[in-house]
């Protein structure tokens, strides 16, 4: 059976909706950004905080095409709470007086900070604390 571009598009949309549902986030708060990278496709799943409108990397996956990346991302979101630690980061953007608190799942504190700083100049945010949360 031949797979048409329409089939791929429908399957991509279906998996994206599953990811959104599993994370409990609407499409406006999750961005799926695809790009070519060294002969592969990279998917950056980015969250947008509705309160302060800042965006952060949730996770990236690489694969041979968009569907491969989406399938890997879906597998990740169904199990990440069991495999990664929870971190709380307190931070503030330069020029802002309000301290912000964000939560990340990561293998270590460096990966949590990478997710916070994703796509930004390191000088635009001041980090006040990075705390490993107790496991529940």
Write the layout of secondary structure elements.
Layout (H helix, E strand, L loop, with lengths): L4 H19 L6 E8 L2 E9 L6 E9 L2 H12 L2 H4 L1 E9 L6 E7 L2 H9 L7 E8 L4
Antiparallel strand pairs: 1-2, 2-3, 4-5, 4-6
Can you offer a commentary on this structure?
This protein has 136 residues and is of the alpha+beta class. The chain has two domains: 1-83, 2-Layer Sandwich (Double Stranded RNA Binding Domain); 84-135. The protein is built from four helices and six strands. The chain has helices at 5-23, 66-77, 80-83, 109-117; strands spanning 30-37, 40-48, 55-63, 85-93, 100-106, 125-132. A three-stranded antiparallel sheet has the order 1-2-3. Strands 5-4-6 form a three-stranded antiparallel sheet. β2 (40-48) and β3 form a beta hairpin. 10% of the residues are buried.
What are its keywords?
4 helices; three-stranded antiparallel beta sheet; single chain; globular
The level 1 CATH classification of the largest domain is: Alpha Beta
Number of domains: 2
Which radius of gyration do the C-alpha atoms yield? Answer: 16 Å
- The structural class is alpha+beta
Average the pLDDT over all residues and give the rounded result.
91
Order of helices and strands: HEEEHHEEHE
The backbone outline, from C-alpha atoms, is globular
Low-pLDDT stretches: none
Helix content: 25-40%
How many strands, what sense, and barrel or not for the largest sheet? 3 strands, antiparallel
The assigned CATH architecture of the largest domain is 2-Layer Sandwich
Count of separate DSSP helical elements: 4
In whole angstroms, how far apart are the ends?
47 Å
